[in-house]
Specification:
519 residues, alpha/beta, Rossmann fold, seven-stranded parallel sheet, six-stranded parallel sheet, glycosyltransferase, UDP_glucos_trans, membrane, UDP-glycosyltransferase, transferase
């Protein structure tokens, strides 16, 4: 009896020690885009504070000495690889290029970047370390290549999206899809689609499905090159998603039915209170008697690469405005108007919290819009690529600002849009209203992300939340076999009825003919 009690005490002690040390997490944010990286930084910090050990593959290392249990593999050269294939030029200056050309070229650049990342010496060391183990993988879902780590370490995984998930990702976890009700976020329309828009959405969605098939095939070859042949096809691995964290806010985004393992963390996981501004920016803002307009196209769209025509329209418009303008621009820009200040880097969150900022002219990246809403600053949108047109449309529909078409922009239209948003209080009031609704929640996006991450670890993959639709072939999901069966019954019934009618008519005609003969 004493021996039994001793063993129970030892096992209890070992279990307690094991759980007090937290989990080992491998995290990978593939995208060479600061906005994609910054969305999840608070999550890594919070998980680290709670005792979890994290190895993070990132293009933008935090380099925080206080995070002693976070090891970062620095993949910042991914930006150079993307530019080697013209990514910045593609998204910044799209003159003379069709959407198909832009999309294909950008996907190719992403594919080459994924290949480079997996060939990185530290990543290869991680792949080849046979003694390495993890309790959880957290991986960005925008591009599938890094999903190979799931099979390499035989580990459950959480998919991460710094914006809404693309259709193939929603589909992989069993969320309801419909090209008309929920068009791809690449489209600039959201609801109440016209007939032409419905046709376009249906056709393009079908084309994207076909494109995904070839993309998986290409990335499977990349995986075999770096991991060997023991990795399942990426499309198959994708179906094993335990949880999906999407940067979606139901107040701002379109409502849609989703399974319990899709967690909406939108609203701004990265948002924080203001820090002191650099002195030169502080003075520029404080001395602006009529206010300051902040203009930024984000990190991926380079203002220095936009067309000369568009740049001239912007500068000519700014010269006629009664406001100071702070423009985030990657290099010196000679000949700027006296009221325009050019800066290569701006602490955007801190700047937007200054009371003298009256307008944010933005490319409508989701993180920038979250920061603008959080700080009650109305917007003028100038979308370039990706989800930006959709975000701009949502922003305008919610009354948070106006959108201008950069492809056909003229000075008068740009001027009118700016002056209207600044001078009509309704725009700022709507931004404040959305901000209040966004913050009135039972848990913040970060709190939900932390809780569900630890839940996935505790339950070893939360397999009980798996949507059965994931395992069904498409013909069963859309009842094609049932509809085919019912249609067959109808057709067979019609055929039988037709035959019976023909026989009856033949018999009737025969009797009528005999009767006439007798007469």
């Amino acid at each position: 009896m004493k021996i039994l009690i001793f063993y129970v005490l030892v096992l209890t002690l070992l279990y307690s020690v094991r759980n007090s040390h937290g989990a080992r997490i491998l995290a990978s944010i593939f995208s060479p885009s600061y906005s994609h990286q910054v969305t999840f930084r608070p999550l890594w910090k919070e998980l680290a504070k709670r005792g979890h050990e994290i190895i993070l593959l990132t293009t933008d290392p935090m380099e925080d000495p206080e995070l002693t249990n976070v090891k970062e593999i620095d993949l910042k050269e991914s930006y150079a690889v993307m530019d080697q294939y013209g990514a910045s030029e593609l998204v910044s200056n799209q003159q003379g290029k069709s959407y198909r050309e832009l999309f294909s070229a950008y996907i190719f650049a992403l594919s080459r970047t994924a290949d480079w990342q997996l060939s990185h010496p530290e990543v290869q060391q991680l792949i080849r370390n046979t003694s390495e183990h993890f309790d959880l993988l957290m991986v960005e879902m925008m591009f599938p290549t890094h999903l190979a780590f799931v099979d390499r370490f035989s580990v459950p995984f959480i998919g991460l999206c710094s914006l809404d998930a693309v259709p193939r990702v929603h589909k992989s976890i069993g969320n309801f899809m419909h090209p008309i009700i929920y068009p791809d976020y690449l489209f600039p329309f959201t609801k109440n689609l016209t007939f032409v828009q419905r046709v376009i959405s249906f056709i393009v969605t079908a084309i994207l499905d076909i494109h995904s098939y070839f993309m998986y095939s290409t990335e499977d070859e990349t995986v075999t090159k770096h991991f060997g042949s023991n990795i399942r096809p990426l499309k198959e691995i994708e179906k094993d998603t335990s949880m999906l964290f999407i940067n979606v806010n139901p107040i701002f985004h379109q409502l849609r039915p989703m399974g319990p393992n899709t967690i909406q963390i939108g609203g701004g996981t990265h948002l924080r209170q203001a820090q002191p501004l650099p002195q030169d920016i502080e003075e520029f803002l404080d001395t602006a008697k009529t206010g300051v307009i902040y203009f930024s196209l984000g990190t991926n769209v380079k203002a220095s690469l936009i067309s000369d025509e568009l740049r001239n329209v912007i500068l000519n418009t700014f010269a006629n405005l009664p406001y100071k303008i702070l423009w985030k621009f990657e290099q010196d820009l000679p000949g700027t108007p006296d009221n325009v200040k050019i800066m290569k880097w701006v602490p955007q969150q801190d700047l937007l919290q200054h009371p003298n900022v009256v307008l944010f002219i933005t490319q409508c990246g989701l993180q920038s819009m979250e920061e603008s809403i959080f700080n009650h600053v109305p917007m003028v949108g100038m979308p370039f690529y990706g989800d930006q047109s959709r975000n701009a449309k949502i922003m305008e529909e919610n009354g948070l600002g106006l959108v201008v078409d950069r492809k056909n922009l003229i000075k008068d239209d740009f001027y009118r849009a700016i002056m209207e948003v600044i001078n009509k209080p309704i725009y700022r009031e709507k931004v404040e209203e959305i901000a209040i609704l966004t913050n009135d929640v039972e848990m913040t996006g970060l709190e939900k992300a932390v809780w569900w991450t630890e839940y996935t670890i505790r339950t070893r993959g939360a397999k009980h939340l798996r949507n059965p639709m994931v395992d069904l072939p498409f013909y069963k999901v859309y009842l094609l076999d049932v509809l085919g069966f019912l249609l067959s019954i109808v057709l067979i019934s019609l055929y039988v009825v037709r035959k019976i009618v023909k026989i009856l008519l033949k018999v009737l005609c025969s009797k009528t003919h005999e009767k006439k003969k007798i007469e």
